[in-house]
Amino acid sequence: MAKQDRAVRTRQTILTAAAKVFEERGYQASTISEILNTAGVTKGALYFHFPSKEHLAQGVLAEQDQRVPIPDRASKIQQVVDTVVLHAYLLQSDPMVRAGVRLSLDQQAQGLDRSGPFTRWTDVGLELLEKAQAQGELLPHVVPTETADVLVGSFAGVQAMSETLSGYQDLPRRVSALLKHVLPSVVMPSVLAAVDITESRGAAVFTELQSLAPPALVPEAAVS
After folding, report:
1. What is the DSSP code string of 5-66?
2. Is the pTM of this model over 0.70?
């Protein structure tokens, strides 16, 4: 068990180092040597877990899936909102999430399949929207697949704009504005009236997750 734990820690150390390098330099300019130096591990240890730079990048891209999930909400629209605003909060505080987003939007990342995060986030949104539709939270005309695509695409644009203009400092405000514009076109007014889409919601959700989850599951960077 100790050997397995050590392997898990080594893998996480490598991923953390790769995230730092990818975030700072982008995919094309990043090198295995720089990631090795940052991680402080042997080349053999790195290649045991990640056979190539592409595998490292895919590991960083997939790491967002390991973040603590939002607890079930009675309102599935609130759960959609909480998923979005928590991701926005982690973009401000978690280097792994920032690196994953940079990689997913890096058009210079030749040979890297960047579709994973878009597909996974769309699937998450679609599942919640279909549940919201089943319990009467959506307006009659809404097609959940379309709404999920619009939310993911809009968030990608808003976060990219926020990163460029303020280093993510104004992201909560921009995400709140996005939700205020999109949700009234898809959510029943009586449901929307009870949904919290304020700028402080992301921090509140993160605090809630800290109280519910074991410390090992809470992103370290976001705590500091």
Report:
1. HHHHHHHHHHHHHHHHHHHHHHHHH--HHHHHHHHT--HHHHHHH-SSHHHHHHHHHHHGGG
2. yes
Cα gap 166→152, rounded to integer Å: 21
Amino acid identity of residue 39, one-letter, is A
* Residues 68-104: tens digit of each pLDDT: 578 999 999 999 999 999 989 988 888 888 777 777 7
Q: Note the pLDDT tens digit of each residue in 91-101.
A: 888 888 877 77
Residue 183 near residue 192 (C-beta atoms within 8 A): yes
- Of the candidates 97, 38, 41, the residue with the CA atom closest to the CA atom of residue 65: 97
Q: What is the mean pLDDT of residues 8-33?
A: 83
* Homologous superfamily (CATH) for 67-223: Tetracycline Repressor, domain 2 (1.10.357.10)
Angle at 111 between CA 66 and CA 109, to 5 degrees: 70
Domain positions in the chain: 2-60, 67-223
CATH code for residues 2-60 = 1.10.10.60
188 phi/psi in degrees, rounded to 5: -60, 135
